[in-house]
Amino acid sequence: MDAQSRGRAEEVDPADQWVLNPQTGNYELRLSPSGPQSSPSAGTPPRRTTAPGRGGPSRRDASRRDVPGQRDNRRSGNTQDGPQAAAGRRKRKPKASRKKKVLLWTGGVMGFILVAGSTGAYLLYQHFNNNLNTVDVGDAGSKHATSDGPVNILIIGTDKRTGKGNEGYGDKGSEGHADTNILFHVSKDRTNATALSIPRDLVTNIPECPTKQKDGTTKTVRSETNVRFNTSLGQEGRDPGCTMRTVKELTGLSVDHFMMADFNAVKELSTAVGGVKVCLAKPVNDPKSHLKLPAGVSKIKGEQALAFVRTRHSFGNESDLDRIKQQQQFLSSMMRQMKSDSTLSSPTKMYGLANAATKALTVDSGIGSIKKLTSLAQDLSKVDLKNVTFTTVPVIDNPADGKVHKTVVVDPVKAPQVFSMMRSDVSFTEVKKKESEAKDAQAALLKGARAQASAVRVQVLNGGAVAGSASQTLLWLQNTKGVLKSDNGGNAPAKLTATTLAYAPNQADQARKLADLMGLPATALKPGTQDAVGRTPMVLTLGADFKGAGIPIAAPAKAPEGIQKVEADKSVCAK
Q: What are the φ and ψ backbone dihedral angles of 480, each rounded to 5 degrees?
């Protein structure tokens, strides 16, 4: 950052230029000693604020005089007191509550955008913008920062050796793997979120992936089957878009955006917030990761924080699955620290956090600017931490491996239930509320008469289910359920993550009957606005969530028994 954007780097820290306006409760950027800030005319540098203790006014005096609209009676010679003086003054607005000020900060780490009209703020804006690295992932993600529906963000931690002091980490010469992976799913109503960790040693399929090259051309990387999840990034020229596509194929959830960070992110972000509290059930002295901590609560940052999230030999059964648990503990604690009063009320910490975050992140072009990132942050800040749950894809040991936990595969029973809950926005912390809402919605939509199975007329399409699903479902409906007025429509024009049943108002009784037979959730029913004419059939499109004829698609009302999960507002100790 140059001297102008810092208010002369040798005298004033940019973070110290934020002044609390007591009338509004907002922090505002001040680049001149007094009066409201305005953009200087062309060629005129902004006036400089003298730092406290260097011959200038104290921070307290500066904040008193610098607030727009606040008059300094001493300077104007007006020193009268009493009723007349009170009558002559403008009525002061009520001071904003502490809660409001916290929310104003939480709405976006980059609070400086609120005063983007000033020269200094514009330069800060450009500085943070220039920190960001972006990748064009094509149609793997969304072009819009936010949406009215659910939001899915893939957080990728790569083991690429970039940054000062990281030469001894990761694989030498590697382009980096998808070493740590968390799919952050935020519900449509923004009441809850689920952070789903995906083990790097999970054996899965990686789909074909088009990637943008430096010369502007597109290279398609071939698909692979039965390989480790972490090879979805870096290997064979794969970019983060390939990891996004792999996650979609695995979970059935479309990924909107990605945020990728290297080893420096953990070190710099933990330092920016003043350290992160972690709890250990026993003392640790790991020579491999260089982690040395006593039992109980410790505050870690920098290299020590990186050692904590990297160690595999200090906790549990020394596998990647147990390392995921301590990473979730660390991230939960850092989220609490970021939203704490000590961070939100400190301009210095907020500036440091914004600077560290933008330097550490690589993001997709859909959120590749400070304006877009701030918009996303404001949207996601609506979620209360008590309704954020960390969990892990349920897995079992890979039968093809002789060694326990060397590689894993998805649990065929529990994993589909977790994916279905996320697709249906069922919270892992508000299950009772969501279960009640789901029942109410289903009751309203499915209330009414049912047609006879023989009267149900439907065309079945394959819109993302495994090959042959449409024909198998057709045979099942005709041979076992008596739905004889059904036919196979082949492949749908587009792939869907969720199964749908489209029908006309005068086919509602048929739709209710088919929903009963198929085990369709209320969310799958898509009523039209115009009545069907003649023998027009309903259209059943089997999406990626379809697991076979006769297997209910409705999302479970509660999480499967025994899955690992951590609530973000609670502290736990690593064992």
A: -115, -20
- Which residues on neighbouring strands pair with residue 491, listed in sequence order? 462
**Distance between CA 382 and CA 565 in Å, rounded?**
22
Kindly give, in sequence order, each residue whose CB lies less than 8 Å from that of residue 425, ignoring residues fewer than 6 positions away.
Answer: 150, 187, 188, 189, 192, 434
CA 124, chain centre distance (Å): 25
DSSP string, 71-133: --HHHHT----SHHHHHHSPPPPPPPPHHHHHHHHHT-S-GGGGGTTSHHHHHHHHHHHHH-E
* Separation of alpha carbons 394 and 419, rounded Å: 10
| CA atoms within 13 Å, Cβ hemisphere of 354 | 29
Look at the block and give the residue holding tokens 């050692």. Answer: 307
Measured CA distances, 142 to 178, 237, 261 (Å): 20, 22, 20
Separation of alpha carbons 332 and 336, rounded Å: 6
Residue 256 or residue 439, greater confidence? 256
For residue 105, is pLDDT > 80? no
More confident residue, 113 or 308: 308
Give strand ranges (E) for 201-241: 203-206, 209-212, 218-221, 224-228
Task: Identify which has the larger pLDDT, 88 or 383.
Answer: 383
- 363 residue type, one letter: V
- Answer whether residue 429 shows pLDDT above 90: no
- Banded pLDDT at 140 (limits 50, 70, 90): very high
Evaluate whether 198 touches 183 at the Cβ level (below 8 Å).
yes
What does the radius of gyration of the chain's CA atoms come to, in whole angstroms?
Answer: 28
Comparing CA positions, the residue from 453, 433, 450 lying closest to residue 441 is: 433
What does the pLDDT read at residue 551?
80
Q: Give the pLDDT band (50/70/90) at residue 20.
A: low
CB count within 10 Å of CB 448 equals 10
Return the ∠ at Cα 345 (arms to 49 and 118), rounded to 5°: 40
What is the length of the chain?
Answer: 575
Residue 49 confidence class, pLDDT cut points 50, 70, 90: very low
